[in-house]
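Repro:
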Amino acid sequence: GKWLRPMEGEGKLGAIAILMEHTEVSALCGDGGKWLRHFEKVSKVQLEISLGSDLEDFKAESLGPPTRLQLESPNGRQECAGEYVLEVNVRVNDQPLWKKVDSERWIYGGMTGAWLLGGPREKKIDFRCSTGYMISFPHNGAMPDAVKGDWRRAVGKNWVEDGRIRVLADADFGCPRPGLHVRIHGLTRRPLRRFNGHLGRIAGRGLEPDTWRVRLADGCDESFVATHLHQRPEISFAEAWLREEPSTDGVGSATAMEWLQLLLSSRQGQLLSPERVPVDTSVATVLDVPAKAMSLLRSVYVKLLMEERPVIAILAQPEPKKEEKKEAEKDTAEASKVEVGKSSSIMEEDDLFAGPSAPADPDGKLVLYGQAALRCAAAIRAMVLIEQNAPGTYSEDRMPSLSIAGTDDASLADFGGGLVPLGSGWGGALGTMTVERHLERIAEMTGAVAERLNSEHALVGGTGAQRRQAASLLPLLFEAPTGEVFVIPSLPSELDGLATKVRVPDSAYDAVRALLTDVEKQQLSAFWIRPPQESKSLYGVQDEDVRPGSLIYALYEGAWVEAKVEFVDKLAGKALIEWAYDKSQSDLDLKDLRPKMDKEALEKRQRSRAIGAAWTLILVGPVRARKALALKALASCEEKWPGLWSTELLEAVEELRGTSEEDAAVNADARYIVASTEAKTGSEPTFQRLTRKDGPGTLKRIASAANCIMKLFGTSGFLVLGTHEERARALEYLAWRCEEPPAGGSSGSTDSGGASVPQSVDYIDADGDRISFRCRVENKETGEGPALDMFLNGEPRIRDILTLRPEGADGPAARTLQLSGTSCTACSKILCTEVPENVENQGAPERILELFRSCSVGALWARRRRRGDVSAVASTCGRNAWLEGKALWDIEVESNTIILLGGLADKPRISRGGAEGNKGVGKGGKDAESNGGGKGEGKGADKAEGNGETEDKDSLKRSKWHPKVVAEVHICGHDAVSRARAAEKVKALIAAVSEEAEAEDEDEPEAKKQKTGEVEVEVDKPVDARAELRKLGFWPKDYLAWREVQDIVWKHHQKLAQGWLRVWARSKDREYYVRFPQFRSTFDINEAL
């Protein structure tokens, strides 16, 4: 009979209920539910198995006693049959009690641990007995409806077993239980009435009294009163609930039901007739199977096909025809007869060996169901298995169609498969393992399915483009010498979308070839195209060298003299020139002319010729791997020929650009290293830090953190390779790192928590208007960072200023500021303001710029804090100043992250040293930037030095550095797990910093007085260098910076010889001595005295 019966009334949410037997559930849910998950993956639907449960599986103590019982006794004691109701709050012998609704009969728990049916006599003695009209076996805690074994009834003085006595707790009587399959009915109120007709299974008691929690077939859970649950007795064991998944490309519930039936048939080892197997070519692929391969496919390979790929494989074989059966039976009967009196010794040889002839097994069919690409892969695998067991089954003339019919997907319109010849002797000469390895590589590169069918052919399946690519790539791989890079005349056009081409000059050929030693491990294939023959002019010079208007050298009486080309006759090999010394003209042969070039033009010409005559390296394979290797090849060429690509970075980007969609997803960007002076006035960030010795290491760590690839090309620029998101992330990380000084110093003008920047700057302009620049502090609720606003006579004019730069002269001479932001009026969002030069406005432009830089850095840190790829670790400015750069570098390398020091307190702050802090302002240039307190220019110079001599005492008191100011350490990286691991290590480093680093500054201790005889002499005691370094708020990062702080950190220390200075070694936590500028160092102070 049919084992699949869709249930009616499954509700409005699209679930279908299917009755299932024990063997079917075992076939699906066995092996940890592997085949259930397999079916869901193939059909893209949800399948839930709802198991029913027998009455004896539940005990009374876990669920409570049923409120009603129905007793049946057709063989005797009919007066006891009927409905029994639970006596509320009544227990006898520590068991519940039920009374018959229409007579004096009770079901009670007796003294011997069995259920009994008693009458008035038992009631009179409060049921302290074990007598009655009926008795059960010991219940062991089970309720009367769930007790095991048959009941017995009293006949005379004996107990007689009666298997027809039944005690039921039916759902219709309000006695539901977990595991019972029910139908919802009788709901009249909204919104619950929409559940009428829904199917489900009781999961347990609800939260409200007299309610039950029901797992519905549509996948949700609801609670209902027992009167709305109707038991479904047709569920003998279990049922399956099939639900379509929304927003997926599933096959639909009807097709899924068919596939479920076929999968169960396959799992149970059934061999179906072709008539019972539905064949829809849009979702199924059919293969003819020879009879001699059927048994092995049925026993082993069908399961193997389904385990390898998410498909459903079904074997179908027709039964032998009746005529064939009759003929076989007749032959069997004849063969079994022996003539009377005929000895076996005189039987013919044919008679001895002729046995009963069985009908020949007919050929069968293998039907595969599933997604198109997966079906094709499974079909090709099946064809290989069939060919191994029945050689000669498939050939060019006998190939099944693997195309997809009836599909609306344009990408599958030319989907199919076919045979590809392996070539003469490849199948045997290369060996099976080598051929299969090459086919695996072809499959990975092209996305097609490639399997070795026999020694002469391979099976390739996929879209038309994939099959053409595989067919073009196959001879290239098979003809290439093992372990060597193969030189080919040209690349087939079908492989353009899978290849990256890089031009390699002859001078860099060996270096690039060394990169290709492990190319196969990267799942790539590399080929070379020889350089083109250099095209030379018949007359000894290139055509582009001699053209009208170009300056040349012309041969005159054995000497080369300057001249200019007026006209060129290429056919005659002549040129009309004008001599530079007397402006006369001559007609000369082209072979007597030589181009005149300066050094830059000559280098450009040499580069152009080298690129034009270069080898072409072709890398075929996954887009990310081949472009990464191509980028390494470009960098290797740059090392061998400095300036080859660094002078034309955009041309290097074009080398990595491709034509396929995958190439567009993984691409390259070029960035030039902008000089600091240019970056100060432009919008482009400066990457000047990359020119330092640690530039390549910095670039490598940032690339790891951003999950991309970055390569430095000389001092001109670098390339970054990855997806658009990865490239943007890497450039942001690099900009942040380049703006941040090394660990141990402050992180920008506001990050160190230095002197408080005034929250506003006011002045009166030439028109008498009051101009105010006010800093808006960080909003803790929204996470928005500080912002700078401009007010005109108390009214907001420009909010969220984005750019602010001086016009004209730099430094104190710049009185005009240009700014842009969000306009609060109908006027332009860009305006200029001029600060009048008078005593009241002294230093106002510098203070405005300080305020803008402070707000900008504060906003930057606030934006970072909200990013998903940044983790913040709380710290203080004092602890940040003493974090060792090497320890942070080790964490970055181990966790593939970038660690940035700094952060903001409640108000924007700048580092000690006035305007611009660490970076310095004005003419200090490079020294000012690297010094952490570099000298400025003009009136701002004293402030930039950090001595603050132009400030009054109150200003100096405000500009003191506060180690306890709240700061942060930002950990940047694409991987959340790596960031969390790095954050834990950074927290450990911060916790290891001595608490003295957070000690507040104190006034210099009073000079102690030392008595010499009767005279008191005041002696200056040397300061504690370690404590003074903590007070600095930054860590000097070069010898020039250390020279500037000698009189602060080592005040009153013994004077050193001229040219010597003191430096503090953090790794050894002690001072050492350096001879400057010879850079000779020692720990012995005697050498420096």
